[in-house]
Amino acid sequence: MPTQVLVLSAGTGATSNLMRGLRAGDDGLAIVGAHTDRFILRKSAADRNYLLPSPDDAGFLAALQTVVAKEAIDLVIPGGDDDVRLLSALRDELPGRLLLPPAAVVETCQDKYRTAVRLRERGVPAPLTFEVTDLDAIEAIFAQLPGPRRWCRIRTGSGSRGAIPVTRPAQARAWIEYWGEMRGVPATAFTLSEYLPGRDFASQSLWRDGTLLLTKVCERLSYFGGGAQPSGMSSTPGLARTVIEPGVIAVCAAAIRAVDARPAGVYTLDLKADATGQPCVTEINAGRFAMITPFFDSTGRHNMAATFVRLFRGEPVAIAEPDDTAEDWYMVRDLDTLPGIYHADELFDGIYDLQAADGSAPA
User: Fold this and answer.
1) What are the counts of helices (DSSP H) followed by strands (DSSP E) for the chain?
2) Is residue 359's pLDDT more than 60?
3) Handedness of CA 344, 347, 350, 356 (dihedral sign)
4) Are 185 and 156 spatial neighbours (Cβ–Cβ below 8 Å)?
5) If 119 and its partner were Cys, which of 124, 166, 291, 339 is the partner (CB 3.0–4.6 Å)?
6) Residue 327 predicted with pLDDT over 80
7) In whole angstroms, what is the distance from residue 25 CA to residue 296 CA?
8) What is the mean pLDDT of residues 173-177?
9) Which residues, 6+ apart, have CB-to-CB distance to 72 below 8 Å?
10) How far apart are CA 128 and CA 117, in angstroms?
């Protein structure tokens, strides 16, 4: 019998990428999709799709359980942080169908302030971070942070929501006031932290019973939609490359063990290097795959999404070396196109460089 997988938030970019990875790594899977938005769900590439009521609706759980029973679902995979939080709360209602970290770990990791505090307490490199208790506290916080710039952002959510670099307390105050007046986000939802000016990394790893089984790392070189962000940055790269960085892997492993005594399943992390080049963890996403998971699925020897399903099934996963990063692969992304993934040797195949000596041969 094929494994029956239910993917929540089906039809989004992240879940479409995840489904491609699952199918590429295991053609025996049957994939079912579900979403609460009928328009997004229409884009789902799952074998069958189900429209669910809002999680706030009293009938949500019964509807979800109906899909699980009707399709004989073995594994439910969240499509994003909201799904992780939702499934974490419902884990007792879906016994044996989830591979998620403990509820306390999910709660900590979905709060960037609590994550930073925990990591620094355990000696893991992370930016010095303060919670904004009220607008009058901003000046005092600024005085405790080093450097000419500080990083202001909302302590929950994804996609660099509410993130901006600031150089003066007045800028942070105006930014936080704007979000309060226009978006209803209170000042207490924000943090201020030290600004990290170095390289930007993303890492994804798979764990079983506290043991790191598989990990891959890439470096963000430019940002998808970054030009439209006040920060000029985004958590999703427009251009990224795979990199061999043992130091990044070591920091990531220490960070995950700092929040979870016995890690299991999937973790994705964001890191930024400080002025000395030390990678610092800025975010831990527990229990979900990254938007850029095709980059990790299609490079290296092991497909991460398919390996995750094997872990859930309890199959032996014999990987001699957890770092499966294949160096010098590039991912290029743009709106309304599939990600392009190319090795460095083929980046310019078929491209004529008019600035070359004769302009007649591919670069």
Assistant:
1) 11, 15
2) no
3) negative
4) no
5) 124
6) yes
7) 12
8) 97
9) 4
10) 8
Judge contact between 178 and 187, C-beta under 8 A. Answer: no
Structure tokens at 26: 């295991």
| CA nearest to 331, candidates 241, 251, 243 | 241
Residue 241, helix vs strand vs coil: strand
Give the separation between CA 74 and CA 7, rounded to whole angstroms: 11
The answer to whether 177 and 135 are in contact (CB under 8 A) is yes
What whole-number distance in Å separates Cα of residue 297 and Cα of residue 360?
Answer: 36
Evaluate whether 207 touches 264 at the Cβ level (below 8 Å).
Answer: yes
Name the β-bridge partners of 339: none
Q: Domains in the chain, please, with CATH?
A: 4-98 (3.40.50.20), 128-194 (3.30.1490.20), 200-346 (3.30.470.20)
Q: 343's torsion region: left (phi>0), alpha (psi -120 to 50) or beta?
A: beta
pTM > 0.90: yes
Residue carrying structure tokens 């994003």: 80
List beta partners, residue 60.
none
Q: What is the pLDDT of residues 40-79, one digit of tens each?
A: 999 999 999 999 999 999 999 999 999 999 999 999 999 9
Instruction: Specify whether the CB–CB gap between 5 and 74 falls below 8 A.
Output: yes
Confidence bin at 160 (pLDDT 50/70/90):
confident
